[in-house]
């Protein structure tokens, strides 16, 4: 039971917040794959959002989200730099 709860907390069902103070992740979107901490593929299906997979499903409901993210225009204030990919096979942490 504890492992299941831990796994779900890392799943990437994402809610976008307007308030940096309530965000779990402050995210900067890069135009360059090489500077990203994570390559993100956006899925239309919640069931594809797996822990630390880089496959994100955006929800309109804060209570359903595992991550609340705030998008910033400033790379220096981000704690996660992402690059969006059209390819699901590229999704995941990059090791940067």
Kindly give the count of domains: 1
If strands are numbered along the chain, what order do they take across the biggest sheet?
Answer: 1-4-3-6-2-5
Oligomer: single chain
What fraction of the residues are assigned to beta strands by DSSP? 25-35%
Helix content: under 10%
Order of helices and strands: HEEEEEEE
Largest sheet: 6 strands, parallel, barrel
Please tell me how large the radius of gyration is.
13 Å
Overview of this structure, please?
This protein has 1 helix and 7 strands, in the order αβββββββ. The protein has one domain (2-93). The protein is mainly beta. The chain has a 6-stranded parallel beta barrel. The relative contact order is 0.35.
Summed up:
The chain is 8% helix and 31% strand. The chain contains 1 helix and 7 strands.
Features:
96 residues; mainly beta; 6-stranded parallel β-barrel
Indicate the topology.
Layout lengths: L1 H8 L3 E4 L8 E5 L8 E5 L12 E4 L8 E5 L8 E5 L7 E2 L3
Parallel strand pairs: 1-4, 1-5, 2-5, 2-6, 3-4, 3-6
Antiparallel strand pairs: 3-7
